[in-house]
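As a warm-up, study this chain.
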Amino acid sequence: MDIAGLKVMIIDDSNTIRRSAEIFLGQAGCEVLLAEDGFDALAKITDHRPDVIFVNIMMPRLDGYQTCALIKKNARLASTPVIMLSSKDGLFDRARGRMVGSDEYLTKPFTKDSLLKAVANHAARGGAR
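Now compare it with the structure written out below.
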């Protein structure tokens, strides 16, 4: 599936993860929005309305669970797919992510293929506008 032109936001306190995702998604033709934490992201989300959002679970100030819950509680943003990112591949993290409304869970470090596949899956399901 062609994902060129989709707006994808990466919320992660790791510059390395943000940069890797930006390169992978940029090469696929996506418009990439970056945020260092949940507070930074929330301001940008309302301004830019991304089609798919990736959010790291462990972040300072506002963690990924809290960020996802706030996104999903907003009526204008609730249908936006949110994919949790974590370096742990734990059942508890997956379940907690689902409880706050996440649509998928991706383990770090992700590959280019796994990142692009996650975007394509949600675009195909009509999550992307």
